[in-house]
Amino acid sequence: MIKFNxxxxxxxxxKILVTGxxxxxxxxxxxxxxxxxxxxxxxxxxxxxxxxxxxxxxxxLTFIEGDINNVDALDIALSxxxxxxxxxxxxxxxxxxxxxxxxxxxxxxxxxIKLLELLKKNENLRRFIYTSSSCVYGQxxxxxxxxxxxxxxxxxxxxxxxxxYYVNYYQNFCKMPTTILRYFNSYGxxxxxxxxxxxxxxxxxxxxxxxPLPIYGDGSDKRCFTYVTDICNxxxxxxxxxxxxxxxxxxxxxxxVSIINLANLINELTCNQSPHVFLPRRQWDHxxxxxxxxxxxxxxxSYTPSHSFEAGLAKTINWFKSTNLY
Length: 326
Ligand SMILES: NC(=O)c1ccc[n+]([C@@H]2O[C@H](COP(=O)([O-])OP(=O)(O)OC[C@H]3O[C@@H](n4cnc5c(N)ncnc54)[C@H](O)[C@@H]3O)[C@@H](O)[C@H]2O)c1
Prior knowledge:
Helix 1 (24-35) packs across helix 7 and helix 4 runs parallel beside helix 5 (155-174). The chain has a seven-stranded parallel sheet with strand order 3-2-1-4-5-7-12, with helices on both faces. It has a four-stranded mixed sheet with strand order 6-15-10-13. The protein has helices at 24-35, 71-77, 94-99, 101-119, 155-174, 199-208, 228-239, 259-270, 295-301, 309-323, and strands at 15-19, 39-44, 61-65, 84-87, 127-133, 143-144, 178-183, 186-187, 214-216, 222-224, 226-227, 248-251, 256-258, 277-279, 289-292. By secondary structure, the protein is of the alpha/beta class. The chain contains ten helices and 15 strands. It is globular and about 55 Å long. The mean pLDDT is 95. The longest helix is centred in the middle third of the chain and has 20 residues, at 155-174. It has a domain at 13-186 and 228-252 and 289-306: NAD(P)-binding Rossmann-like Domain (Rossmann fold).
């Protein structure tokens, strides 16, 4: 049970919608909300999420298996006029969008607009949180704050940014209380391995099977990985803070690690002795470093990620082992 702090009282007994709530981040968010006595509705088409990520027996959880492009399903999801809407449903992520650009556009832009249109008539809405991505900063090689120039290299980065513009439109012209969060590389329990998933679950799954870890390029690229409950904490704090209305905020961590060190660490923690394989870079992937500044979130609601990388990784590996699904 996670009861972070007094801000979370905002959610007790509130009606809350989480789109994509069966996914990697959404399911962790739902768990924290249920632990804090919220009444949560999830809409998810299970394209990349799983009901196994959710406590389906909870009396405070309503699960709707449906697509955010289906207005009838969305209408049902919104029928109780939720006070908070956390919009996490998305076609995830870069490589998926390169392979399926239309699906990417359809869900990430089209589904977001359908949701926002229906929300216009919800007078109870206290906050709409849109979860965008650090990929909108592309190859920026500086410490990335929210004013770093945009640099788009994949359909996913284009769709995530375009939906931000729509959110700003509904904020500015329909007076909807919105906040945009740009997440930086989440990892943790709830995210399985898969063709379109992130590097950490894919490395862990291979390593537990004593397989070589594939490294695109020479492994010197660095990323800052953020443990999923830290991402959720930032998300919930942002929605509970009035000063973050209309803001676009980075949510990440400064746990910077190179891909080669990540691979070595995961092999060490799983006793995998297979040597890595080095593969050519993917065409769109030229991002050597992505180091966020989260000062705005820190100033607005004291956002501080609390997990060290080693502790988060150990928890994630233990979760993988407990699922037997690797
Ligand atoms: N994981 C990361 O590192 C990361 C980084 C930056 C931004 N984000 C953003 O955070 C959000 C959550 O990411 P995640 O890692 O949990 O992804 P995820 O793929 O695990 O979760 C997305 C969920 O949305 C559902 N979904 C997809 N299309 C849908 C549709 N059309 N209708 C209804 N449900 C649909 C999926 O089944 C899944 O459960 C996404 O918006 C993503 O763009 C994630």
